[in-house]
Specification:
Elements (H helix, E strand, L loop, with lengths): L1 E5 L4 H11 L6 E6 L6 E2 H4 L12 E4 L2 H7 L2 E4 L6 H4 L1 H5 L4 E3 L9 H8 L6 H6 L1 E2 L12 E3 L3 H15 L9 E6 L14 H4 L4 E3 L6 H12 L7 E6 L6 E8 L6 H12 L5 E5 L14 E8 L4 E8 L3 H15 L16
Parallel strand pairs: 1-2, 1-5, 2-4, 5-6, 6-8, 7-8, 9-11, 13-14
Antiparallel strand pairs: 3-4, 9-12, 10-11, 12-15, 14-15
Helix pairs in contact: 1-12, 8-10
The structure holds NADPH dihydro-nicotinamide-adenine-dinucleotide phosphate and N-acetyl-L-glutamyl 5-phosphate.
The site of N-acetyl-L-glutamyl 5-phosphate has 12 residues, from strand 11.
Length: about 350
């Protein structure tokens, strides 16, 4: 099987390219870029790949007809707003797409315009796109997969057992999420400047983060009573990794044992979500892996449950989950092409 990748020059694309090259079901990865007017060596565009066997790999000028002729699936690891403009011909042709951007995650054009401030995709396509939170929504029959956002992935995996088992008051959800700088992609900005991020913490996008409606939308499919969540994001002075800390008031009579049981039941058969019970995982434990690790502690004095969920934003939060969606779509083993339990000290 041949896989096309658009966006190899971005952080997400660089990681996804390496994962696709190690996938046993992928014979060839073909690269396409909007900046290319003629074929270019990958090594001349992305310095990470200037040595070794990737150097001679070509990036072809972006051409949707060529992509469909020469490949069986296309991955878009492109900036927000790009697939809303580029993906419709693939949808019209029923050609499989896995999209790492947020362009097809929200159900309505109005929501997308409100939170992304960009021109939306066609409503008919938003109606049919599949939201690929792999542990809960199988992409088996999907043609267009909207890969979830990094914060949304860690947060939804933290909330799912509590919401699905009706253990919490859904009006009381507070999410305090923090990410390393690679979550923002490769484009420099004042916020991301070394002097500003180093030895510093910065709260950003207060009440305006684009993953708020994404999380609420998915929670509503599990419990229609969910109306809104308080969700905050902080930039950490690290490159990789993300932690989502969730707080919620538990319903009367709920115990730590019931909380633990809900997480145990939800994730005991999942390869890439690891329940650490009352031990809170750290970011370093998951960097370089496709794992999400989750711990939860109930405080009977405040009737509050606190959940800590950690992922590598570029793997489980982007390219790794995209590979899981690919595996579901094409009936590969769920762990094909993914490192399982690669621990770092
Ligand atoms: N970084 C992360 O942790 C995560 C990112 N995502 C999402 O994945 C996507 C990629 O993110 P990331 O890699 O961080 O972003 P980067 O900014 O690092 O890379 C963006 C990529 O998109 C390409 N691109 C930009 N405009 C166009 C266009 N008009 N046509 C085709 N390609 C274009 C860029 O090419 P060029 O170099 O030529 O400009 C580059 O390859 C984004 O939508 C992001 O929101 C999702 C989860 C986590
Ligand atoms: C640190 C940082 O800036 N992270 C990004 C996460 C990017 C992302 O995943 O956003 P999409 O919804 O466009 O995919 C942010 O907070 O916007």
């Amino acid at each position: 099987m041949n896989a096309a990748l658009v966006g190899v020059s971005g952080y997400g694309g660089m990681v996804l390219f390496q994962l696709l090259n190690n996938h046993p079901g992928v014979d060839q990865v073909n690269l396409y870029g909007h900046a290319q007017t003629e074929n270019q060596n990958l090594g001349d565009v992305v310095s990470l790949f200037e040595l070794g066997h990737f150097n001679q790999q070509q990036i072809f000028p972006y051409n949707e007809i060529q992509i469909m002729q020469d490949n069986d699936v296309v991955f878009f690891a492109t900036s927000a707003g790009v697939t809303a403009q580029l993906a419709q011909p693939f949808i019209d042709a029923d050609f499989p797409v896995i999209d790492l951007s947020g362009d097809y995650r929200l159900n309505t054009q109005a929501l997308y315009e409100q939170w992304y401030h960009k021109q939306p995709a066609q409503q008919s396509a938003l109606d049919t796109a599949h939201y690929g939170l792999v542990e809960f929504e199988s992409a088996h029959n999907a043609k267009y997969v909207a890969n979830p956002g990094c914060y949304a992935t860690a947060t939804l995996l933290a909330l799912a057992p509590l919401v699905k088992n009706d253990l919490i008051d859904v009006d009381s959800i507070i999410v305090d999420a923090k990410s390393g700088t690679s979550g923002a992609g490769k484009k420099p900005s004042e916020l991301l400047h070394f002097s500003q991020t180093n030895e510093n913490l910065q709260v950003y996008k207060v009440n305006q983060h684009q993953h708020i409606p994404e999380v609420v939308q998915e929670l509503q499919t599990w419990n229609p009573a969910v109306k809104a969540i308080q969700f905050n994001t902080t930039l950490l002075p690290i490159t990789r990794g993300l932690m989502s800390t969730v707080y919620a008031k538990v319903k009367a009579g709920v115990t730590q044992a019931e909380v633990s049981e809900a997480f145990e039941q939800a994730y005991q058969d999942q390869t890439f979500v690891n329940w650490t019970d009352r031990r809170f995982p750290t970011i370093k434990e998951v960097v370089g892996t496709n794992d999400c690790k989750i711990g939860a502690i109930y405080n009977p004095d405040t009737h509050t449950v606190m959940v800590v969920s950690v992922i590598d934003n570029l793997i489980k939060g982007a390219g790794g989950q995209a590979i899981q969606n690919f595996n579901q779509m094409f009936n590969f083993d769920e762990a094909a092409g993914l490192p399982v339990n690669v621990w770092v000290p």
